[in-house]
Give the backbone structure.
Amino acid sequence: EVHLVESGGGLVQPGGSLRLSCAASGFTFSGYAMSWVRQAPGKGLEWVSAISGSGATTFYADSVRGRFTISRDNSKNTLYLQMNSLRAEDTAVYYCAKGGRGYSSSWVDYWGQGTLVTVSS
Amino acid sequence: EIVMTQSPATLSVSPGERATLSCRASQSVSSNLAWYQQKPGQAPRLLMYGVSTRATGIPARFSGSGSGTEFTLTISSLQSEDFAVYYCQQYNNWPLTFGGGTKVEIK
């Protein structure tokens, strides 16, 4: 059974940094692209970033490019999101998301429970 | 960026009735279209990918259709557990994009 467990969320001041982690289990982690998707309070879903199974290729939404960095450690079955220069508009629940196929461009077939990031002074 | 537009924003339906949700893409996404269901306080759940392929465990009352820029999710006979928000997503182009959602509420 696939499990995705996020951690690392919390309250941070504007301009600060935070690193999210996602521990994955129940599937061959290196065989699938992974994404981060966020949801601001009371709003819809916004794709943030994706990374190929090998980690060699990454993709970012314009809203976070240059501030966020996605990475993965396939030996630890863990996905990361380093978030720098955080802004109030980055406040959201961040979901770890497994791609449904080997391609980086994919639907999401499993979601974590989400971790809340609040950017406020 | 491909903009995904869902309509209506809110759909009021009685249990047992049919619900038809629409999703329009600003340019063709071929058949690279997925649907998700989200209930309050929960993570989204995959319903459909490749326009019309149901995800594991999704009942047959859910069906998807369309291609190119116009897509439809149909729930043939709404059950109490189907009242939720539904999102479409294209994965044909980067960045991946979601529609704004359709809330299906009890009439």
